Amino acid sequence: MTTKLRSIFPILAVLFALVAPMRADVAQPSYPRPPEPETAPSRFGSDLYTVDKILVESTSVVGEMARYRIRVEALGDIEQIRVLENLPAGLEYVSAEPAPAETKGGSYMWTWPNMTRGTSQDIVITVRPTQGGWFVTNTKVAVVPTLGLPIFAGTPKLELTKTGPTQAELGDDINFRLTVSNVGNAPARDVIVSDTLPAGLYGPDRSSNVVTHRVGTLAAGETRIIDVPVKAGIKGEWDNRANAYSTHHVQANAVAHVSIVESKVSITKTGPDRAFVFSTGGYAIKLTNEGDTVLENIQLTDEIPEGARYIGSSYGGAVSGNHVSWTIDRLAPGESTIREVQISAQRPATLTAVASAKLATGRTAHASATTEWEGAPGVLTEIVDDVDPVKTGTRVTYSIKITNQSPMRELTSDAVFTLAPNMSVVEVTKNMRAEVSGRTITIKNISLKARGSVSFKIVAKADEPGIGGIRFEFGSGLLPRPVVKEESTYVY
């Protein structure tokens, strides 16, 4: 036996001897048949493998061939399989399938580097007995078991999404939602999500535009949701960027775009500053879209003040209680529209009516118009001379009466009297506090109650012959023009 073969046996951790009895049957033995020897079992089993040994073919005659099979079956994964077969004296080796890897004298070895669970290897050996008797073949098998311990190493991978409104009104409170997920197969530790706000968005802390959230450890497959409330502070187009990172230098980024717009409507209301009771006052309400969005379904309402009566409106305004209203379907940026209302007052009063526009966003705009409703003026003036004609150098007295014919209100005005060039002022009724300048007499702030009147006299001197007389003007802010009255006196 070579040194190489001898070195195999000390490393065999598991050894067993398989002995297959072989008979050399002789039809008419000429000597007594010896008893069958005791041998090791022809099958061995363990948790790792089994070995069995069977006689395939034999005539039991000296000099004739016999075949037997050795089978190794793996019950688990095994390595370095060694099968050593020793033939006794008197049993001649003929062949084997497969052929042995090593041969030395009566020892034969087969080797396999590894076998996986469920596989098997067969060795079929052909021998020839050269003499009579029992022959015991010994099989030794050695294997190295393979022990497996799975150790997994994964990689964390962060994924970040950011959602929010694509358009927001200036000044509105809006919310962006960050969703950070670990889509890898290992935990991501010390995860931090940082949201960098653009100039047009304000976070809770106005001193910094970076909002930081410490997530901590994010297990594989785990997701966290973070809400970021902000205020739309400046009009424009803004990109809101966020990133997530961990101690493993794993990063993810996300961006959300938002347009900050201003839906803005201006409203004006115009009407008469003054109007007469029972007349119709017309008012114009003008809406203008001063924002940068199309305005839809604008609710316009105009107030009918207490003491006024609704007369009519343009565009079929709907009247309910003391309001008239319209719905403006659409108003493009820069576009204007006008609605008109007519009302009448039932008594003298100062009335203010407020018009309001409400946008779909809830924003409102207001405008008002104030009108002083007055009673219609009616002034009667009378002037009579006491003598006509009049002699040069003598006096003539003019009796004057001013009557307020309006039943609703008093009026106040100045009266201006002018004498003809051939006449001069002598005196005016003292309690009138008249101002005289040459031939002109001015009486200021004559106050007349409703249906009231005032009477006074002016005495003039006829200086030269000709057509003389007096001219009287009485004006009021309620009158479209002054009332003018003249009285002629002939001087001879």
From TrEMBL:
Q: Which residues form the signal peptide?
A: 1-26
Pfam hit, one: DUF11
Q: Which residues form a coiled coil?
A: none
Where is the DUF11 domain positioned along the sequence?
A: 51-139, 158-254, 265-358
**Keyword annotations of the record:** Signal
For this protein, the record's NCBIfam families field holds: B_ant_repeat
* PANTHER family on file: LARGE CYSTEINE-RICH PERIPLASMIC PROTEIN OMCB (PTHR34819)
What is the protein name given in its UniProt record?
DUF11 domain-containing protein
- Organism annotation: Ereboglobus luteus
